[in-house]
Amino acid sequence: MAVDIDSVLVALGEVGPYQMKIYFLLCLPIIFVGAANLAYVFIAAKPDYRCFIENCDDEEKPEYHEQFLNYTIPLNNKTNKYDSCHHYVKKSNDSFSTCFKDDFSENVTTCEYGYVFDKSIYESTIVSEFNLTCGDSWEASADQSVYFGGMLVGSIFFGYFSDKYGRRKIILAGIACMAISGITIALVPNLLAFQCFEIYKCNGLCWAFSDSFHI
Description:
Layout: H1 5-12, H2 17-43, E1 49-51, H3 69-72, E2 75-76, E3 81-82, E4 86-90, E5 104-110, E6 115-117, H4 126-129, H5 138-165, H6 167-184, H7 191-212
Antiparallel strand pairs: 1-6, 2-3, 4-5
């Protein structure tokens, strides 16, 4: 037997100010869900970087773009940019040597003195904060897998919790988790701690809240 939805809504009461208010209040937290998902694009952005050149770069505030890169950093033939992981070897090991073209040979070596990041677009990302460069660059991509792994776990457990304990409680718990992890994640000292709070954030809001919408 077919059900006339319009007649059911008339019997229950059509959408009014109260329903609109509740819907609006429920939509506010979902903004943070979208922000949490989109934030990774900026948090894990991969800026250009190169080797720190001893006696050439300013130790206090090195800049990515410098004139001496033409003879200190080889070009990457594939990207036509400066090589991110190698630099030309100095002919002299004297720590007080100069920074002229004749000081460098054509031999290359890895970045033993660290890296200089291009901050013209991103002032700081997890790549520059945790030095996810060259051989460790895969960890930045793996972090995204960890993030969505947290969503998978959250979708399993919080959907069950919302049915058992009530959707309002789980929504509030999710918002609290988002607030705590969102602040803490900016203060963590290493990538492992960052990933732990990424999982916590996913479980706490992204899926706890979305599963709580299910009726």
